[in-house]
Amino acid sequence: MPAWTPPPPPPPSWIATRWPGPAGGPTQPVLVGVAAAAAVAAVSLPLTRPGIGWLVAGVAGTAALVTAAWPTPRPANTSDDARPASDPGSARPTGTPGSAAPATTAGPTQPAATPTPPAAAPVQPAVTPAQAAVTPPQPAVAPVKGVVTPVGAEGRPIGGWRRIGGVRPFWAATTVALLGVGTFRAAGWLFLLCLLTAAVTATLTLTDGRSVRAMLLSALVPPAAVIRSIEWLVNRKNRSSRSGRGPAVGRTLVSVLVSVGLLVVFGLLFSSADAAFAGLVDTLLPELSAATVFRWVFVFGLVGAALLGAAYVLAGPPDLTGMASGPSRLRLRRADWILPVALLDALFAGFVAVQVTTLFGGSDHVLRTAGLTYAEYARRGFWQLLAVSLLTLLVIGAAARWAPRESRSDRALVRILLGALTLLSLVVVASALFRMDVYADAYGATRLRLLVAVCEAWLGLVFVLIAVAGVRLAARWLPGMAIGTAVLALLALAVANPDRLIAEHNVDRYRQSGQIDVAYLSGLSADAVPALDRLPDSLRDCALWSLAADSRPDDWRETNLARIEARRILAERPATSRRFCPARSGW
Questions:
Q1: Burial 533-553 (b: 16+ CB within 10 A, else e)
Q2: What's the maximum distance between 2 C-alpha atoms anywhere in the chain?
Q3: Which of 161, 171, 420, 548 has the most CB atoms at less than 10 Å from its CB?
Q4: Of 213, 212, 254, which is closest to residue 478 (Cα–Cα)?
């Protein structure tokens, strides 16, 4: 009867192989940086409207993470969990390199210690030519003494703040720039888009996903890191108690409390001594109340947990390298994909031939040939052409994925047919933008119309990137470049000041046609005040009375340049009358 053998252990999970996490616990500089950044965010973040406090919190958080990710070389014979010298188990044997020989009282008859010969270097096994052909060459990474650089599946270093090509600094800079939009623009909808986009760029800063699969998976890393960082922090506390360094943390806390006490005592004395300084302190410090303290504690805990999770990812980043989709096992025959793509090219060419006449003929040609109104032509056509652009991206992606590319003729067919479809799609994008421009000229500009026009223009840029990638049939850089251009497009929209653009377009349209939706314009933010100030008095009062009624002063956290400019204009020419003003329209 054969002996029973235990079943083999289950294979390691994805987390165990790709994301084991950092060893030990967070260092003291990491904890101090995270706590300081969370305290700055608790004091500076305005939760009601955009302001400079978001930029201050973003800069503080970025500085804390730079400190956490910056490599700190240590001597090779030390570690974070080294025991103190008083621990008997920490004594090193005599004769080891770097250790001092203890003083002894041995007499002259004691024999001298025999030096230990150095250990022979291990003999490397010979590598046969067959093994050398199978084994891929490993990249040479310059070792840094005391710093362990994890290497991913593709052989490139992962983790830390450094990245080849400056990709991670780009995402970090865009994150801070998106948070800084609240300092210059008062539009709440724009700043909300910037906050959501900043969450995406912050995730890419930490995980550095490049392929589509890695980017989708990286969205799960931040919430998982917040949970796993709790155990990381517990390991730090347990290790500190074992190593006898617990009082160091207590001394740091006492130092912070003493510093706060000194600031309070001397601040009160200076405030009582000078009225101007007292006014400055009253401006900087908010009025203490139960709600204020609760908000501070809530924001401190929320931001502190997020930053600790980010530091956990930087200390032990997941390996998202090598996750790009490899060559597909499914390969179509030429006839399977050439016929549908060629027919689609012919259909696009026919549509483009009509659109070229439309684009150069102007709106009168459209109304004369189609017999439609502006709304029927522009509004309906825009959304349908937007759907065409999105579906075309799917068709190009599927064809590029499954079309054969083994022979030179196969690659030439992919370049020609898909390249033609890409170039024709650019004309479709131009037609959609033309229709939206016609619609805005006829019925005025709105936030939604401007936003979807920017999205359509970004799709056109994506088609240009696809055309560039199709030249060499290599598109590993395309997902990151597409997201990067989307972020830059949002920042460009913020720089262009969308609410003011909308107001200026509608004011110019009023001067030409005498038509204006003043009810909609009254719902714009303070960004639009300089443009709305150009309206006649009656329309100006209707458009600006709501902003004049909500012109309360900001504290330092809510400092916003657009609101400052709007208050200056309204102070020079107040708008208090609501004579025959219509009800405010929707967004």
A1: bebeeebbbbbbbbbbeebee
A2: 119
A3: 171
A4: 212
Dist CA 47 CA 51 (whole Å): 9
Report the candidate in 37, 38, 26, 36 with the shortest Cα–Cα distance to residue 69.
26
- Whether pLDDT at 219 is above 80: yes
- Nearest to residue 382, comparing CAs of 450, 298, 478, 305? 450
Higher per-residue confidence, 574 vs 506: 506
pTM of the entire predicted model: 0.74
- Residue 249 pLDDT > 80: no
Nearest to 49 by CA among 202, 201, 195, 203: 195
Q: Tell me the DSSP string of 272-320.
A: HH-HHHHHHHHHHSPPP-HHHHHHHHHHHHHHHHHHHHHHHHHHS----
> What is the C-alpha separation between 93 and 38, in angstroms, rounded?
45
DSSP 526: G
Residues 6+ apart with CB under 8 A from 393: 459, 462, 466
Per mean pLDDT, which range of 8-12, 139-143, 168-172, 322-326 is the poorest? 139-143
Q: Given the structure tokens 């305005």, which residue do they identify?
A: 46
Comparing CA positions, the residue from 482, 480, 483, 527 lying closest to residue 503 is: 527
Quick one: DSSP state of residue 322? T
Cα separation, 322 vs 155, whole angstroms: 9
What mean pLDDT is reported for the chain? 75
Burial 2-25 (b: 16+ CB within 10 A, else e): eeeeeeeeeeeeeeeebbebbeeb
Q: Which residues of 464-492 are buried (b: 16+ CB within 10 A; e: fewer)?
A: ebbbebbeeeebeebbbbbbbbbbeebbe
- The rounded distance, in Å, linking the Cα atoms of 550 and 384 is 40
Please spell the DSSP secondary structure of 128-140, one letter per residue. -HHHHHHSPPPPP
Q: In 3D, which of 331, 352, 317 has the Cα closest to residue 406?
A: 331
Distance CA 69, CA 49 (A): 32
